[in-house]
Amino acid sequence: MAEASISVTDHGFLFGDSIYEVLATRRGKPVFLRPHLERLRKSAEGIALAIPYSDDRLITEIDKTLQEAGNDESYIRIIVTRGVGDIDIDPSSCEDPSVIIFVTPPHIYPQVNYDNGINVALVSVKRNSREALNPGIKTGNYLNNVLAKVEANKFKAEDALMLNGWGHLTECTTSNFFFVQAGRVMTPSEECGILSGITRLTVIQLARENGILIEEGKWPAEILQKADEAFITGTIKKVIPVTRIDGHPLGDGTPGPVTKKLMRLYGEYCDNLES
After folding, report:
1. What pLDDT is recorded for position 275?
2. Mean of the pLDDT values across residues 195-222?
3. 3-state DSSP call for residue 109?
4. What is d(CA 18, CA 7) in angstroms, rounded to the nearest whole number?
5. Judging by DSSP bridges, how do beta strands 118-122 and 159-163 pair with one another?
6. How confident is the model at residue 5, as a pLDDT?
7. Same CATH fold, 111-271 and 11-104?
8. Whole-structure pTM over 0.90, yes or no?
9. In this predicted structure, what is the pLDDT of residue 12?
10. CATH number, domain 111-271
11. Which pLDDT belongs to residue 58?
12. 26: Cβ–Cβ under 8 A, 6 or more apart, which residues?
C-alpha cells in the first residue's frame, strides 16, 4: 500500500467526489459482500458516477487483494472516485473513474467497549440534510462527521450523536444508533437523514424474528432522558452498548438485557453465515 498513488488532480482528492464501502471478513471471507456492493452502486447512482467494474470483477479483485495481504482477518475498503480531470468543480472532464481496493489488518475495538459500554456525546454539529448531501449516499465527503467527532473528543466521548436540522435524532459518526425504552427498541428512520447500515438492517431483522418490538421513527433528543439502554451498530463495530450519554448513565450504567440479547443474536447470525 505504501507504493500506491493517486493523481492530485483526481476529483476524489480535489473535491471529495467519491463513494466508498467498508467490509470486514469472518473466517477470512468478506461478510455481507453482495449487500455492500449493492449499496456501492446505489451511492454511485446518487452522485451520477459510473462504476467501471462489474460486481464479479470487483469480487475477483477483492479476493486477489485479500490473498496478497495474507491476513487471518481483514478490513476492506472499496473506493470509487470521479477520476482525473480539470481543476474545476465541473466533473465532465473526468472520463475514467478510479477504483481503489485496499486491505489492512482488522480494526479492533477494545473489549471493554463491549463489556462496559461507551459514552456518546450529543453534539452541536448537525447531520447533513437529505435535501443537501443525502446521508443515505456513502460518499468520501465526511467532513460533517469529522467535525462531530472532533467535538465528541473534547468531551472525552467515544462517539458523537448528531441531530438533524429539525432536532430529530439521526446517527453517530460511523454507526447507526438505537435506544431501548420499556423493552421496545427504537431507531431513527431513513427519513431523519441517516445511512441505513447493513448491520442496522440485520439487527432490525433479528429483533423482529425474535419477538423484540422495534420501531423506526422520528424522536427529539429529550426522549433519551427516558431511555433504559442504547447501542450503536456498524460493519466494524458490530453491536456496541452505549451506557452513557453526555457522561450521564443510561439505566444502571451497564449494558442492558435487550442490548446483550441483540449482541448475542448478531454474533450467532454471523457465525452461521456461509464461509
Report:
1. 44
2. 97
3. coil
4. 14
5. parallel
6. 83
7. no
8. yes
9. 96
10. 3.20.10.10
11. 98
12. 73, 270, 271, 273, 275
Per-residue pLDDT at 164: 97
Task: Give the residue-averaged pLDDT of 68-77.
Answer: 96
Angle at 233 between CA 115 and CA 178, to 5 degrees: 95
Classify residue 61 by burial, with Cβ atoms within 10 Å: 0-12, 13-18, 19+.
middle
Task: For residue 55, give the C-alpha cell.
Answer: 460486481
Pick one of 3.30.460.10, 3.30.470.10, 3.40.710.10, 3.40.50.11540 as the CATH number of 11-104.
3.30.470.10
| Phi and psi torsions of 50, nearest 5° | -95, 120
Look at the chain and count its residues.
Answer: 275
Which residues pair with residue 103 across a beta bridge?
Answer: 76
Query: DSSP string covering 186-244, please?
Result: EEE-GGGT----HHHHHHHHHHHHTT--EEEE--BGGGGGG-SEEEEEETTTEEEEEEE
What was the pLDDT predicted at 3?
74
pLDDT tens per residue across span 174-187? 999 999 999 999 99
Domain ranges (residues) in the chain: 11-104, 111-271
Task: Say if residues 42 and 196 touch (Cβ distance below 8 Å).
Answer: no
Q: What is the pLDDT of residue 274?
A: 65
User: Which residues are bridge partners to 84 per DSSP?
Assistant: 10
241, burial (CB in 10 Å: exposed 0-12, middle 13-18, buried 19+): buried
